[in-house]
Amino acid sequence: MATQLPEPIIEQTYYLNMGPQHPSTHGVLRLFLKLDGEYIIEADPIIGYGHRGHEKMAESHLYEQFLPNASRMDYLSGLIFNHGYVAAIEKMAGIEVPPRAEYIRVICAELNRISSHLLWFGTYIMDLGGFTPFLYAFDDREIILDILDRVTGSRLTYSYCRVGGVAKDVDDEFIAATRGFIQRLRSRWEDYHNLVTKNVIFIHRTKGVGVINREIALRFGCSGPVLRAAGVVYDIRRVEPYSVYPDLQFEIPTGTAGDAFDRYMVRLQEIEQSLRIIEQALERLPEGPIRGRAPRNVRPPRGDSYFAVEAARGALGFYIVSDGTRYPYRLKVRAPSFGNLQVLTEMLPGTLVADTISILGSIDIVVPEIDR
Amino acid sequence: MSFDDFREELRKVVDPAAIRASDHGIKGYSLEVTARSDQVGRIARAARDTDLFLEAISGVDFTDCFQVVYFFNGFGAGSRVQVRVKVNKGESLPTISTVYDAALWHEREVFDLFGIAFDNHPNLRRLLLPEDADFHPLRKDFGRVHAVRSTDEIYGDPTA
User: Fold this and answer.
1) Are strands B19-21 and A328-334 parallel, antiparallel or unpaired?
2) CATH code, B3-155
Protein backbone atom coordinates (compact mmCIF):
# COMPACT_ATOMS: atom_id res chain seq x y z
CA MET A 1 0.00 0.00 0.00
CA ALA A 2 1.27 3.41 -0.96
CA THR A 3 2.23 5.60 1.92
CA GLN A 4 0.36 8.80 2.37
CA LEU A 5 2.55 11.90 2.11
CA PRO A 6 2.74 13.67 5.45
CA GLU A 7 1.60 16.96 4.01
CA PRO A 8 -0.25 17.84 0.82
CA ILE A 9 1.90 19.25 -2.00
CA ILE A 10 1.41 22.98 -2.23
CA GLU A 11 0.93 24.08 -5.81
CA GLN A 12 1.60 27.70 -6.53
CA THR A 13 2.94 29.99 -9.18
CA TYR A 14 6.45 31.30 -8.74
CA TYR A 15 8.78 33.85 -10.27
CA LEU A 16 11.99 33.27 -12.15
CA ASN A 17 14.61 35.80 -13.13
CA MET A 18 16.13 34.92 -16.47
CA GLY A 19 19.16 37.10 -16.82
CA PRO A 20 20.56 39.72 -16.55
CA GLN A 21 23.55 37.50 -17.22
CA HIS A 22 21.97 34.67 -19.11
CA PRO A 23 24.03 33.65 -22.15
CA SER A 24 21.05 33.79 -24.49
CA THR A 25 20.07 37.36 -23.61
CA HIS A 26 22.78 38.97 -25.80
CA GLY A 27 23.58 42.08 -23.89
CA VAL A 28 22.06 42.63 -20.52
CA LEU A 29 18.40 41.74 -20.48
CA ARG A 30 16.42 40.43 -17.55
CA LEU A 31 13.25 38.49 -18.17
CA PHE A 32 11.02 38.42 -15.13
CA LEU A 33 8.88 35.35 -15.61
CA LYS A 34 5.83 34.25 -13.68
CA LEU A 35 5.68 30.49 -13.95
CA ASP A 36 3.14 27.76 -13.46
CA GLY A 37 5.41 24.75 -13.43
CA GLU A 38 7.25 24.84 -16.74
CA TYR A 39 4.72 27.16 -18.35
CA ILE A 40 5.02 30.92 -18.47
CA ILE A 41 2.01 32.92 -17.30
CA GLU A 42 3.48 36.37 -17.53
CA ALA A 43 6.70 37.79 -18.91
CA ASP A 44 8.16 41.18 -18.15
CA PRO A 45 11.39 42.09 -19.97
CA ILE A 46 13.35 44.49 -17.79
CA ILE A 47 15.75 46.65 -19.78
CA GLY A 48 17.94 49.63 -19.15
CA TYR A 49 21.04 47.92 -17.76
CA GLY A 50 23.02 49.36 -20.64
CA HIS A 51 21.48 52.83 -20.67
CA ARG A 52 24.24 55.30 -21.45
CA GLY A 53 22.15 58.34 -22.33
CA HIS A 54 23.19 58.63 -25.98
CA GLU A 55 20.26 60.92 -26.73
CA LYS A 56 21.31 63.25 -23.91
CA MET A 57 24.92 63.21 -25.06
CA ALA A 58 23.81 64.39 -28.49
CA GLU A 59 22.41 67.61 -27.02
CA SER A 60 25.82 68.83 -25.90
CA HIS A 61 27.89 67.60 -28.84
CA LEU A 62 28.39 68.82 -32.37
CA TYR A 63 26.69 66.74 -35.05
CA GLU A 64 30.13 65.41 -36.05
CA GLN A 65 31.17 64.74 -32.48
CA PHE A 66 28.21 62.44 -32.01
CA LEU A 67 29.32 60.28 -34.94
CA PRO A 68 31.13 57.60 -32.89
CA ASN A 69 28.10 57.18 -30.61
CA ALA A 70 25.84 55.94 -33.40
CA SER A 71 27.70 52.70 -34.00
CA ARG A 72 27.93 51.99 -30.27
CA MET A 73 24.18 51.59 -29.94
CA ASP A 74 24.01 48.46 -32.03
CA TYR A 75 27.51 47.05 -31.95
CA LEU A 76 26.65 44.25 -34.37
CA SER A 77 25.47 46.38 -37.27
CA GLY A 78 27.29 49.55 -36.29
CA LEU A 79 28.05 50.62 -39.83
CA ILE A 80 24.37 50.74 -40.73
CA PHE A 81 23.71 52.96 -37.70
CA ASN A 82 26.69 55.06 -38.70
CA HIS A 83 25.38 55.33 -42.26
CA GLY A 84 21.86 56.12 -41.09
CA TYR A 85 22.97 58.89 -38.77
CA VAL A 86 25.18 60.54 -41.37
CA ALA A 87 22.52 60.23 -44.07
CA ALA A 88 19.93 61.78 -41.75
CA ILE A 89 22.11 64.87 -41.30
CA GLU A 90 22.91 65.04 -45.02
CA LYS A 91 19.26 64.93 -45.97
CA MET A 92 18.35 67.60 -43.44
CA ALA A 93 21.18 69.92 -44.43
CA GLY A 94 20.90 69.16 -48.14
CA ILE A 95 24.45 67.87 -48.59
CA GLU A 96 25.34 66.00 -51.77
CA VAL A 97 27.32 62.79 -51.54
CA PRO A 98 29.52 61.65 -54.47
CA PRO A 99 28.31 58.40 -56.09
CA ARG A 100 31.52 56.53 -55.29
CA ALA A 101 31.04 57.25 -51.59
CA GLU A 102 27.41 56.08 -51.74
CA TYR A 103 28.45 52.80 -53.37
CA ILE A 104 31.21 52.24 -50.81
CA ARG A 105 28.74 52.90 -48.02
CA VAL A 106 26.28 50.39 -49.40
CA ILE A 107 28.96 47.73 -49.90
CA CYS A 108 30.23 48.16 -46.34
CA ALA A 109 26.73 48.35 -44.85
CA GLU A 110 25.72 45.12 -46.58
CA LEU A 111 28.93 43.41 -45.47
CA ASN A 112 28.04 44.52 -41.96
CA ARG A 113 24.51 43.16 -42.35
CA ILE A 114 25.93 39.77 -43.36
CA SER A 115 28.33 39.76 -40.40
CA SER A 116 25.44 40.61 -38.08
CA HIS A 117 23.24 37.85 -39.49
CA LEU A 118 26.13 35.36 -39.36
CA LEU A 119 26.73 36.16 -35.70
CA TRP A 120 23.02 35.72 -35.04
CA PHE A 121 23.06 32.41 -36.91
CA GLY A 122 25.96 31.10 -34.86
CA THR A 123 24.70 32.20 -31.48
CA TYR A 124 21.11 31.19 -32.12
CA ILE A 125 22.06 27.65 -32.99
CA MET A 126 24.39 27.62 -30.00
CA ASP A 127 21.50 28.72 -27.76
CA LEU A 128 19.61 25.73 -29.10
CA GLY A 129 22.49 23.42 -28.28
CA GLY A 130 24.45 23.09 -31.52
CA PHE A 131 28.05 24.16 -31.22
CA THR A 132 29.55 23.39 -34.64
CA PRO A 133 27.52 25.85 -36.78
CA PHE A 134 28.79 28.61 -34.49
CA LEU A 135 32.35 27.86 -35.58
CA TYR A 136 31.33 27.87 -39.26
CA ALA A 137 29.60 31.22 -38.93
CA PHE A 138 32.41 32.87 -37.00
CA ASP A 139 34.97 31.55 -39.43
CA ASP A 140 33.17 33.33 -42.29
CA ARG A 141 32.37 36.39 -40.22
CA GLU A 142 36.04 36.82 -39.39
CA ILE A 143 36.78 37.48 -43.06
CA ILE A 144 34.23 40.31 -43.14
CA LEU A 145 35.71 41.82 -40.01
CA ASP A 146 39.17 41.70 -41.59
CA ILE A 147 37.90 43.35 -44.77
CA LEU A 148 36.13 46.09 -42.85
CA ASP A 149 39.02 46.46 -40.43
CA ARG A 150 41.36 47.24 -43.31
CA VAL A 151 39.18 50.01 -44.71
CA THR A 152 37.49 51.47 -41.62
CA GLY A 153 40.12 50.84 -38.97
CA SER A 154 37.82 49.08 -36.54
CA ARG A 155 36.22 45.69 -36.18
CA LEU A 156 32.89 46.43 -34.52
CA THR A 157 32.21 50.08 -33.70
CA TYR A 158 32.73 51.64 -37.10
CA SER A 159 32.86 55.40 -37.57
CA TYR A 160 33.56 55.18 -41.25
CA CYS A 161 30.99 57.46 -42.84
CA ARG A 162 31.55 61.19 -42.75
CA VAL A 163 29.07 63.94 -43.49
CA GLY A 164 29.38 64.21 -47.26
CA GLY A 165 31.25 60.99 -47.91
CA VAL A 166 33.40 58.32 -46.30
CA ALA A 167 36.67 58.55 -44.39
CA LYS A 168 38.91 56.46 -46.63
CA ASP A 169 38.81 55.20 -50.18
CA VAL A 170 38.75 51.50 -50.95
CA ASP A 171 41.50 49.93 -53.02
CA ASP A 172 41.83 46.95 -55.37
CA GLU A 173 42.75 44.69 -52.50
CA PHE A 174 39.45 45.50 -50.77
CA ILE A 175 37.53 44.72 -53.93
CA ALA A 176 39.42 41.47 -54.49
CA ALA A 177 38.95 40.40 -50.87
CA THR A 178 35.21 41.16 -50.99
CA ARG A 179 34.80 39.22 -54.25
CA GLY A 180 36.72 36.36 -52.68
CA PHE A 181 34.45 36.43 -49.66
CA ILE A 182 31.28 36.29 -51.78
CA GLN A 183 32.62 33.25 -53.60
CA ARG A 184 33.68 31.56 -50.38
CA LEU A 185 30.38 32.10 -48.57
CA ARG A 186 28.41 30.80 -51.55
CA SER A 187 30.56 27.68 -51.70
CA ARG A 188 29.83 26.99 -48.05
CA TRP A 189 26.12 27.70 -48.25
CA GLU A 190 25.19 24.09 -48.79
CA ASP A 191 27.08 23.12 -45.64
CA TYR A 192 25.07 25.66 -43.65
CA HIS A 193 21.80 24.20 -44.86
CA ASN A 194 22.92 20.62 -44.43
CA LEU A 195 24.14 21.31 -40.92
CA VAL A 196 21.18 23.27 -39.62
CA THR A 197 18.20 23.76 -41.90
CA LYS A 198 17.67 20.04 -42.40
CA ASN A 199 18.50 19.16 -38.80
CA VAL A 200 15.45 17.51 -37.27
CA ILE A 201 16.17 18.75 -33.73
CA PHE A 202 16.47 22.29 -35.01
CA ILE A 203 13.22 21.98 -36.97
CA HIS A 204 11.37 20.74 -33.89
CA ARG A 205 12.73 23.55 -31.77
CA THR A 206 11.68 26.25 -34.24
CA LYS A 207 8.68 25.16 -36.37
CA GLY A 208 5.48 26.59 -34.95
CA VAL A 209 7.35 28.18 -32.06
CA GLY A 210 6.81 31.86 -31.28
CA VAL A 211 4.37 32.72 -34.04
CA ILE A 212 4.26 36.47 -34.66
CA ASN A 213 1.63 37.13 -37.29
CA ARG A 214 0.87 40.33 -39.17
CA GLU A 215 -1.70 41.49 -36.64
CA ILE A 216 0.62 41.13 -33.64
CA ALA A 217 3.46 42.77 -35.56
CA LEU A 218 1.22 45.76 -36.34
CA ARG A 219 0.16 46.14 -32.73
CA PHE A 220 3.72 46.15 -31.43
CA GLY A 221 5.39 47.95 -34.30
CA CYS A 222 7.71 45.08 -35.20
CA SER A 223 9.99 45.48 -38.19
CA GLY A 224 12.80 43.77 -40.03
CA PRO A 225 13.02 39.99 -40.42
CA VAL A 226 10.44 39.54 -37.62
CA LEU A 227 7.84 41.38 -39.69
CA ARG A 228 8.91 39.90 -43.02
CA ALA A 229 8.67 36.37 -41.63
CA ALA A 230 4.97 37.14 -41.05
CA GLY A 231 4.60 37.62 -44.80
CA VAL A 232 4.69 41.43 -44.94
CA VAL A 233 6.89 42.77 -47.71
CA TYR A 234 8.27 45.75 -45.85
CA ASP A 235 11.84 46.82 -46.22
CA ILE A 236 12.93 50.45 -45.84
CA ARG A 237 15.45 49.92 -48.63
CA ARG A 238 12.49 49.39 -50.95
CA VAL A 239 9.69 51.46 -49.37
CA GLU A 240 11.71 54.59 -48.63
CA PRO A 241 14.71 54.11 -50.90
CA TYR A 242 17.89 55.84 -49.80
CA SER A 243 21.49 55.93 -50.98
CA VAL A 244 21.93 53.88 -54.19
CA TYR A 245 19.53 51.05 -53.31
CA PRO A 246 17.05 52.05 -56.07
CA ASP A 247 19.75 51.23 -58.67
CA LEU A 248 20.39 47.75 -57.33
CA GLN A 249 18.41 44.58 -57.93
CA PHE A 250 17.46 42.55 -54.90
CA GLU A 251 14.52 40.63 -53.57
CA ILE A 252 12.84 40.92 -50.21
CA PRO A 253 12.57 37.45 -48.69
CA THR A 254 9.41 36.81 -46.71
CA GLY A 255 8.00 33.91 -44.71
CA THR A 256 4.45 32.67 -44.32
CA ALA A 257 3.94 31.28 -40.82
CA GLY A 258 5.83 33.92 -38.84
CA ASP A 259 7.40 31.32 -36.54
CA ALA A 260 11.02 31.03 -35.44
CA PHE A 261 11.87 28.82 -38.42
CA ASP A 262 10.56 31.43 -40.88
CA ARG A 263 12.60 34.14 -39.21
CA TYR A 264 15.65 31.90 -39.55
CA MET A 265 14.96 31.31 -43.25
CA VAL A 266 14.31 35.01 -43.92
CA ARG A 267 17.68 35.97 -42.42
CA LEU A 268 19.53 33.31 -44.36
CA GLN A 269 17.91 34.45 -47.58
CA GLU A 270 18.75 38.04 -46.70
CA ILE A 271 22.41 37.10 -46.55
CA GLU A 272 22.13 35.79 -50.11
CA GLN A 273 20.42 39.00 -51.22
CA SER A 274 23.09 41.09 -49.53
CA LEU A 275 25.72 39.15 -51.45
CA ARG A 276 23.84 40.03 -54.65
CA ILE A 277 23.75 43.70 -53.68
CA ILE A 278 27.48 43.77 -52.93
CA GLU A 279 28.27 42.00 -56.19
CA GLN A 280 26.31 44.56 -58.23
CA ALA A 281 27.70 47.49 -56.28
CA LEU A 282 31.27 46.28 -56.85
CA GLU A 283 30.47 45.92 -60.54
CA ARG A 284 29.11 49.45 -60.80
CA LEU A 285 31.50 51.14 -58.37
CA PRO A 286 32.26 54.45 -60.13
CA GLU A 287 35.52 56.37 -60.05
CA GLY A 288 35.61 59.78 -58.47
CA PRO A 289 35.95 61.61 -55.18
CA ILE A 290 34.87 60.06 -51.88
CA ARG A 291 34.13 63.31 -50.07
CA GLY A 292 31.65 65.88 -51.30
CA ARG A 293 31.48 69.55 -50.48
CA ALA A 294 30.35 69.69 -46.89
CA PRO A 295 30.86 72.45 -44.35
CA ARG A 296 33.31 71.79 -41.56
CA ASN A 297 30.43 72.01 -39.08
CA VAL A 298 26.98 71.25 -40.40
CA ARG A 299 24.11 73.50 -39.42
CA PRO A 300 20.86 71.86 -40.51
CA PRO A 301 18.03 74.38 -40.95
CA ARG A 302 15.54 74.91 -38.13
CA GLY A 303 12.79 72.35 -37.83
CA ASP A 304 12.69 68.59 -37.62
CA SER A 305 13.24 65.59 -39.84
CA TYR A 306 12.84 61.84 -39.58
CA PHE A 307 15.10 59.52 -41.49
CA ALA A 308 14.77 55.76 -41.62
CA VAL A 309 17.16 53.08 -42.80
CA GLU A 310 16.91 49.32 -42.79
CA ALA A 311 19.28 48.04 -40.10
CA ALA A 312 20.02 44.34 -39.68
CA ARG A 313 17.18 44.06 -37.14
CA GLY A 314 14.60 46.27 -38.78
CA ALA A 315 13.57 49.85 -39.31
CA LEU A 316 15.96 52.26 -37.66
CA GLY A 317 14.89 55.89 -37.40
CA PHE A 318 16.70 59.09 -36.53
CA TYR A 319 14.44 61.96 -35.52
CA ILE A 320 16.41 65.19 -35.38
CA VAL A 321 15.10 68.51 -34.12
CA SER A 322 17.42 71.31 -35.15
CA ASP A 323 17.52 74.85 -33.85
CA GLY A 324 19.80 75.96 -36.68
CA THR A 325 23.02 75.69 -34.69
CA ARG A 326 25.86 73.19 -34.86
CA TYR A 327 24.35 71.16 -32.01
CA PRO A 328 21.25 68.95 -32.33
CA TYR A 329 18.42 70.27 -30.18
CA ARG A 330 16.98 66.80 -29.80
CA LEU A 331 17.99 63.48 -31.29
CA LYS A 332 15.69 60.53 -30.96
CA VAL A 333 16.74 57.08 -32.08
CA ARG A 334 13.98 54.68 -32.98
CA ALA A 335 15.68 51.35 -32.38
CA PRO A 336 14.38 48.38 -34.36
CA SER A 337 14.74 45.95 -31.45
CA PHE A 338 12.47 48.10 -29.26
CA GLY A 339 9.24 46.82 -30.78
CA ASN A 340 10.72 43.41 -31.52
CA LEU A 341 11.53 42.87 -27.85
CA GLN A 342 8.26 44.23 -26.50
CA VAL A 343 6.39 41.59 -28.47
CA LEU A 344 7.76 39.05 -25.97
CA THR A 345 5.15 40.21 -23.43
CA GLU A 346 2.59 38.79 -25.86
CA MET A 347 4.54 35.79 -27.19
CA LEU A 348 5.86 34.20 -24.03
CA PRO A 349 2.71 33.62 -21.93
CA GLY A 350 1.57 30.05 -22.53
CA THR A 351 4.91 28.74 -23.74
CA LEU A 352 7.48 26.56 -22.04
CA VAL A 353 10.57 28.03 -20.41
CA ALA A 354 12.72 26.04 -22.83
CA ASP A 355 10.99 27.70 -25.77
CA THR A 356 11.81 31.13 -24.36
CA ILE A 357 15.39 30.63 -25.50
CA SER A 358 14.25 29.70 -28.98
CA ILE A 359 11.82 32.63 -29.25
CA LEU A 360 14.17 35.19 -27.73
CA GLY A 361 16.99 34.04 -29.98
CA SER A 362 14.85 34.04 -33.09
CA ILE A 363 13.84 37.71 -32.80
CA ASP A 364 17.52 38.68 -32.70
CA ILE A 365 17.70 41.53 -30.26
CA VAL A 366 20.67 43.66 -29.36
CA VAL A 367 19.81 45.14 -25.99
CA PRO A 368 22.23 48.12 -26.01
CA GLU A 369 20.37 49.61 -28.96
CA ILE A 370 17.11 49.50 -26.98
CA ASP A 371 18.76 50.90 -23.87
CA ARG A 372 20.66 53.57 -25.80
CA MET B 1 -7.26 50.19 -46.05
CA SER B 2 -4.97 52.78 -47.45
CA PHE B 3 -3.17 55.89 -46.40
CA ASP B 4 -5.85 58.04 -48.06
CA ASP B 5 -8.48 56.49 -45.79
CA PHE B 6 -6.44 57.62 -42.83
CA ARG B 7 -6.21 61.12 -44.24
CA GLU B 8 -10.00 61.16 -44.58
CA GLU B 9 -10.49 59.93 -41.03
CA LEU B 10 -8.00 62.45 -39.74
CA ARG B 11 -9.98 65.34 -41.24
CA LYS B 12 -12.97 64.25 -39.15
CA VAL B 13 -10.93 64.31 -35.95
CA VAL B 14 -8.79 67.42 -36.19
CA ASP B 15 -9.26 70.81 -37.76
CA PRO B 16 -8.08 70.58 -41.43
CA ALA B 17 -5.97 73.67 -40.86
CA ALA B 18 -3.89 71.69 -38.36
CA ILE B 19 -3.00 69.09 -41.01
CA ARG B 20 -0.18 70.01 -43.33
CA ALA B 21 1.27 67.98 -46.15
CA SER B 22 5.06 67.86 -46.14
CA ASP B 23 7.72 66.59 -48.50
CA HIS B 24 8.49 63.00 -47.55
CA GLY B 25 11.80 63.20 -49.41
CA ILE B 26 13.09 65.98 -47.14
CA LYS B 27 11.13 65.68 -43.91
CA GLY B 28 10.68 61.91 -43.82
CA TYR B 29 6.94 62.15 -43.20
CA SER B 30 4.05 63.00 -45.50
CA LEU B 31 1.65 64.59 -43.04
CA GLU B 32 2.34 66.95 -40.20
CA VAL B 33 -0.45 67.19 -37.66
CA THR B 34 -0.60 69.61 -34.76
CA ALA B 35 -3.11 68.18 -32.33
CA ARG B 36 -4.52 68.91 -28.90
CA SER B 37 -4.04 66.36 -26.17
CA ASP B 38 -7.73 65.39 -26.15
CA GLN B 39 -7.53 64.44 -29.84
CA VAL B 40 -4.67 61.96 -29.49
CA GLY B 41 -6.88 58.98 -28.65
CA ARG B 42 -9.12 59.46 -31.66
CA ILE B 43 -6.17 60.00 -34.00
CA ALA B 44 -4.61 56.77 -32.75
CA ARG B 45 -7.85 54.85 -33.28
CA ALA B 46 -8.14 56.25 -36.81
CA ALA B 47 -4.56 55.15 -37.48
CA ARG B 48 -5.17 51.66 -36.13
CA ASP B 49 -8.37 51.23 -38.09
CA THR B 50 -6.60 52.14 -41.31
CA ASP B 51 -3.76 49.65 -40.79
CA LEU B 52 -1.03 51.99 -39.61
CA PHE B 53 1.38 50.99 -36.88
CA LEU B 54 2.89 53.11 -34.14
CA GLU B 55 6.51 53.69 -35.01
CA ALA B 56 7.71 55.89 -32.18
CA ILE B 57 6.73 58.32 -29.46
CA SER B 58 9.21 60.93 -28.50
CA GLY B 59 9.33 64.10 -26.46
CA VAL B 60 11.02 67.47 -26.82
CA ASP B 61 11.56 69.93 -24.00
CA PHE B 62 11.08 73.65 -24.68
CA THR B 63 11.16 76.66 -22.38
CA ASP B 64 7.40 77.13 -22.66
CA CYS B 65 6.11 73.57 -22.86
CA PHE B 66 6.82 69.95 -23.71
CA GLN B 67 6.01 68.51 -27.07
CA VAL B 68 5.16 64.88 -27.50
CA VAL B 69 5.71 63.60 -31.03
CA TYR B 70 3.95 60.50 -32.36
CA PHE B 71 5.00 58.73 -35.54
CA PHE B 72 2.52 56.47 -37.30
CA ASN B 73 3.53 54.56 -40.38
CA GLY B 74 2.02 52.11 -42.83
CA PHE B 75 3.53 49.39 -44.99
CA GLY B 76 3.11 51.48 -48.15
CA ALA B 77 5.53 54.03 -49.52
CA GLY B 78 5.52 57.50 -48.01
CA SER B 79 2.92 56.83 -45.32
CA ARG B 80 4.65 58.19 -42.26
CA VAL B 81 2.62 60.69 -40.24
CA GLN B 82 3.93 62.98 -37.57
CA VAL B 83 1.55 64.12 -34.82
CA ARG B 84 2.85 66.84 -32.53
CA VAL B 85 1.04 67.50 -29.27
CA LYS B 86 1.77 70.40 -26.97
CA VAL B 87 1.84 69.47 -23.28
CA ASN B 88 2.12 72.26 -20.74
CA LYS B 89 4.63 71.69 -17.95
CA GLY B 90 3.04 69.70 -15.18
CA GLU B 91 0.18 68.48 -17.34
CA SER B 92 -0.42 64.93 -18.54
CA LEU B 93 -1.58 63.24 -21.71
CA PRO B 94 -4.20 60.53 -22.24
CA THR B 95 -2.67 57.15 -22.97
CA ILE B 96 -3.02 55.45 -26.34
CA SER B 97 -1.86 52.10 -24.97
CA THR B 98 -5.48 50.92 -25.12
CA VAL B 99 -5.23 51.34 -28.91
CA TYR B 100 -1.65 50.28 -29.55
CA ASP B 101 0.21 47.79 -27.38
CA ALA B 102 3.44 49.35 -28.62
CA ALA B 103 2.51 52.54 -26.75
CA LEU B 104 2.86 50.70 -23.43
CA TRP B 105 6.63 50.92 -23.71
CA HIS B 106 6.95 54.10 -25.75
CA GLU B 107 4.89 56.00 -23.17
CA ARG B 108 6.91 54.49 -20.35
CA GLU B 109 10.06 55.73 -22.06
CA VAL B 110 8.69 59.27 -22.45
CA PHE B 111 7.59 59.22 -18.83
CA ASP B 112 11.00 57.96 -17.77
CA LEU B 113 13.08 60.47 -19.72
CA PHE B 114 10.80 63.53 -19.59
CA GLY B 115 8.52 63.00 -16.62
CA ILE B 116 5.39 63.46 -18.70
CA ALA B 117 2.60 61.35 -17.20
CA PHE B 118 0.08 59.43 -19.28
CA ASP B 119 -3.41 59.14 -17.76
CA ASN B 120 -4.85 55.64 -17.43
CA HIS B 121 -1.64 53.92 -18.50
CA PRO B 122 -1.88 50.52 -16.79
CA ASN B 123 1.74 50.31 -15.73
CA LEU B 124 3.48 53.67 -15.84
CA ARG B 125 6.89 53.00 -14.33
CA ARG B 126 10.40 53.73 -15.46
CA LEU B 127 11.67 51.80 -18.46
CA LEU B 128 15.36 52.57 -18.90
CA LEU B 129 16.44 54.22 -15.66
CA PRO B 130 16.54 52.49 -12.26
CA GLU B 131 13.31 52.52 -10.26
CA ASP B 132 14.77 54.80 -7.58
CA ALA B 133 16.01 57.53 -9.95
CA ASP B 134 14.65 60.95 -8.99
CA PHE B 135 15.34 62.81 -12.23
CA HIS B 136 14.18 62.88 -15.83
CA PRO B 137 17.36 63.11 -17.91
CA LEU B 138 16.10 64.49 -21.21
CA ARG B 139 14.68 67.61 -19.60
CA LYS B 140 16.77 70.59 -20.53
CA ASP B 141 17.42 71.52 -16.90
CA PHE B 142 19.25 68.23 -16.35
CA GLY B 143 22.93 67.82 -17.17
CA ARG B 144 24.75 69.60 -19.95
CA VAL B 145 22.87 70.90 -22.97
CA HIS B 146 23.85 73.38 -25.61
CA ALA B 147 20.70 75.48 -25.68
CA VAL B 148 17.16 75.76 -24.36
CA ARG B 149 14.71 77.15 -26.88
CA SER B 150 11.08 78.06 -27.06
CA THR B 151 8.72 76.34 -29.50
CA ASP B 152 8.64 79.46 -31.67
CA GLU B 153 12.40 79.53 -32.09
CA ILE B 154 12.25 76.16 -33.83
CA TYR B 155 8.80 75.87 -35.37
CA GLY B 156 7.81 79.55 -35.58
CA ASP B 157 7.52 81.59 -38.74
CA PRO B 158 11.10 82.30 -39.90
CA THR B 159 10.10 85.70 -41.35
CA ALA B 160 8.52 86.94 -38.13
Assistant:
1) unpaired
2) 3.30.460.80
